[in-house]
Amino acid sequence: MDLFSNLQMGFSIALSPEILMYCFIGVTLGTVVGILPGIGALAAIAMLLPMTYFLSPAAAIIMLAGLYYGANYGSSTSAILLNIPGAPSSAITCLDGYPMARQGRAGVALIMTTLASFAGSSMSILLVMAFAPPLAQFAINFGSPEYFSVMLLGLLASSSLSQGSFFKGMVMVFAGLLLGMVGLDVNSGVARYTYGSLNLQAGISIVAIAMGIFGLAEVLANIGMRGGNRISMKDLGWRTYIPTRKDLKQSFFPIMRGTAVGAWFGLLPGTGSAIASFISYAVEKRVSKTPERFGKGAIEGITAPEAANNSASQAAFIPTLTLGIPGDVVMALMLGALMIHGISVGPRTIIEHADLFWALVASFWIGNFMLLVLNAPLIFIWVRLIAIPYQVLYPIILALVCVGVYSVNFNTFDIYVVIVAGIIGYVLRVLGFPAAPMLLGFILGPMVEENFRRSLMLSRGSFDIFVTRPVSASLLAAGLLFIIIVAWAAMRERQKLQDKKPD
Amino acid sequence: MTTTRAILSAGIAALFVTAVGYPASAQDSFPSQPITMIVPFAPGADTDNSARLIARGMEERLGQPVVVINRTGAGGQIGFAEGAAADPDGYTITVATPSIVTGPYLSSAVRVRVLEDFEPVALPAGTPLAVITRADRPWSTAQEFLDYAAENPGEILYGNPGEGSFSHLLPLAIESATGVEFTHIAYQGGGPALVAALGGEVDAAAVGIGGAVEHIREGTLQVLAFATRNRYPAFPDTPTLHEMGHDVETLTWWGYLVPKGTPQDRVEMLADAIRHAAGKPEFLETAERRTWLTDYYGPSEFAEFLVSEDARYGGLIERMIERGSLVRAN
Amino acid sequence: MSSEQPAPLRLLTRAIAAIAARPRVLASFAITFSFGAMVLTEALNYRLGTLHRMGPGYFPTILGIGLIILSFTLLFERNGEDGERLPAKFLPVLVVPVAMGIFAFMIERYGVYPATTVLVIVAGLADQTFRPVFLLLMALLVPAAVTVIFVFLLGLPIKPFVW
User: pTM score, two decimals?
Assistant: First the structure.
C-alpha cells in the first residue's frame, strides 16, 4: 500500500530524537497557551518563528503545528473549572462544563474532554492522510453562495443554543450580528459603527468579547459570593475522576458527530474551530432526546464541541498544505515559516515535498499522543483549582485575562473592550439573556452578510444563484427542514400542554 | 547622615543624567539599547517575512537586538499611528507599505501623514502586483484580456482582497488608464480572493504574485502583465502594462521609517544597516524564491519616491471616489 | 357602572401594573429597544441599496428593526423574569473595571509588572473580606508569576518595566 509506505517514511522522520523534541516543545507550549485565558496560539507561534529559521523545515513546521493543535486541548480547562473560556472556541464548553464542575464532576469533565479531543483529532488526521487532495478540491468549489447557505444554517441552529426565553436568545443573536459588523464593510469599504475610531475600524476582537462576556462577567458575579457553590478538597477523591459507563455511552455518538462537524468547518478556509464547536453543540442539543439536560451538566455538551474544535484544527491543514491557502492567521504564519526555508506551498506540495508532508502527518499522531499523556496527569492538578477560595483566585484570573487579551494584538484597546463587554455581560446575566448565541452571531454575522451580498454581485442581482447550485440548494433545503422540524416540535409541545390542562 | 545624603543625591543625579542627558551622551554610541521594529501586518505574510530577515541582518551591523513586533489592525493604520507617535530617537522603526500613503485618502479616521510624520530611512525590497487571471478564459495575453474587457464592459469578475485595499487599486488603475470596466468582487483578504479564482468564482484576482506563483506553475492561473516600470526578472517574457502604453504602476513596497525629528546621523546608520541586511545572501535567496524586487533606496531616494507615490495614489483615489468606484470611509 | 373606568383605560392601567411588577422585563425591553433604535439611527447614515444590490446599510437596518420588534415580544415573554438573582452589590462592578482600566493605562507606560501590581491591589478592594497582609502578598506574587509566564516563558514582546 502506498499510504503505508508513505506513512512509514513519515514516521521514520518524525520519530528522530531531534524532531520528537521539537514536537514536544510545540505541544507543551500549545497546552500552556491553551490553558491561559485570552492568549492564543498566534502570540506563541509568532514568538517561536525566529527560532524556526535555524531548524530544518520539518522540525519547524512540526513544532509550530504542535503548538497550533495543542492549544485546543487546554482551552477547555478553564472553561470547565472557572467558567472562563481559554479561547473563543471553548466558550461553548462553559455551558455544560462549569455545571459539571459545580456538581463535583470536574475530573470526569476534564478527562472526557481530553479523550474527546484525542478522538476528534485522530479521526480528522485519517481524513488528512487519505483524502487531502479531493477534499481540497471540494473546499475550492465551495463558493460564496455555499458559504452563505451554510452560515445561514448555522444561524438557524443558534436558536437552540440557549435555554429559557426564546426571544431573549434571538435578541442576543441579533446583537452578535451587529457587533460583528463593526468595522470596515468588506463589500463597500464603508466604516460602520466605528464613530470615527481607528481601533473600531479594525473590528472588535472576538477574544476580547469572549473574555468579557463570559470571563469578566463571571468574575463580577462571583466576587464576594459566599457559601455553597465552592467545592472542598475532600469532595475530590479519585472516584470523581472516573467517567461512568453512562458518560462514555452518552459521549460516543456526539464525539462522532462533533468530529464530522469539525472536519467540515476545518476544511473551509476562513471558518474554523469556534464555529465548529458552537454548531456541534447546537446539533447535539437538537438531536438529543433529553435536550432539557443541556446547560445543566450534560456530558455530550462538552465532548461534542471539544471533538469538533480539535477535528477542525487538524482538518484546517488540508487547504493549507494542498493549496497553500491558509485558513487563518496562524496557518498563514506556518506557511511563512516554510517560505523562509524556500518551500512554497501549493498544489504539488504533497508530491514534491512528500517527506515533509508525511512527516507532518506522522507528527500529528505523535503530538496528539503526547498531548494525551501530558494532559491526563495535569487534570489532577487543575481540579484542585476549584478548591482555592475565590478571593485568592479572582485577582489571578483578572491578571491572566488582562495580559492574555493584551498579548493577542498588543493593543490596550482590547482590554477596554473586555471591560465594557464584561459589564454588559454582567447586566445581561442579571436580566436572563444568554451569552452563547451572541458569540455565534458575532462569528457568523459578517460571513452571512458578506457572502450574501457577494453572491448577488456575482449573479448580478439574481437570487437564482442560491438554488441553482446543488450544494447551496441542499444546504438551504436542510435549513428549511430544520425550521419545519422545530415548528412541528413546538406545536406538539403546545398540544401536550393543552391536553394536560383540561380547561 | 551626610553619607546617606551624598549617596542619595548622587543617585538622583545619576537618574537625572540617564533620563535627561541620555540623547546627548548616546550620540556616539547609538544604538545602545534594543531597537523595536513595528510591523503593522500579521506575521507570516511577505511583509513580515522580509522585515524579520532585515531585522536579523541589522542586528549584525548594529550589535543590538532588533525586536519585531506585529501591531496589526485597520489595514496597518494602527501600527503606523503607533510608529509615528514613538520618540524620534531612532529606537523605533516602522515598516510601511503603500497603505501608509493611500490610508488618509481612503479614510478620514486615518490621521497619519507619511510625509509629515515620518523620516524615510530605506526601501530595500517590494513585490509587484500583476494581472493574474484564470488560464481557462478566452484570453491568453494582456492585450486580449483588455480587448475582451473593452468589448464586454462589466463582464469580467475581478476579485480583490477588500474594497479599498491596496491590491484593489490595480484593477481600478487599469480601468482608469484604459477605460475598460470590470465588476469588482471584494473578499476578506488575499487568501479567499485566491480561492475564488481557483474555484472559478471570479475570472481574475488582484493578489500578490507570491501566493499565486504555485498555481501559475500548475497551470490553473496565468500571469498576463506586471504593473511595474521594467520587466520583472522572475518572469522575463511577461510584458508590463507600462510598455503596453498604460500608466499603471502598483508596487507593494516595504519601506522603513522613523518618526519625524530623528537625528540625521541615526537615520544614516539605520539606512546603512538595512542596506547591509538587504545585501546578505540569505535575504537575496529568499527574495529570489519569493520573486521580490530588490532595488535599494536610501533615505533621499526613498523620500523622493514617497512624494511621487503620494501624488500617484492620491490622484487615482480621488478620481475613483469621484467616479463612485470607491467610497471614503469615515 | 359610572364609577368604573372605561374598558380600554382599564386594560391600559392593568397592563402598566403588570409590567411594573416585572422589573427585569421592563429593563430588558428598555435596553433592547434603545439598542435597536441606536442601531437604526446610525444605519440611516449608510447607503441602503436595493434587495438585489445591497448597500452597507441594508443589513444593519433590518437588524435594527428586528431588535425593536423583538423588544416588544420581550414584554409578553413567559420566562421574562428569568435571570440570576444576584445580591445587590455594586462594589465589584465598579471597582474591577476601574482596576482593569488602570492596568490598560499602565501596561505600555510603566510595564507589565507595576501594572499587574496595581491591578491586583485595586481589584482586591472589591472583596471586602480581604485582609491587608494577604492582599499585599498577592500583590507581590501575582505580578511576578505573570511576568515569568508571559515575558520569560512565552517570550512575548512585553516589557516587565518601563522607565
Answer: 0.83
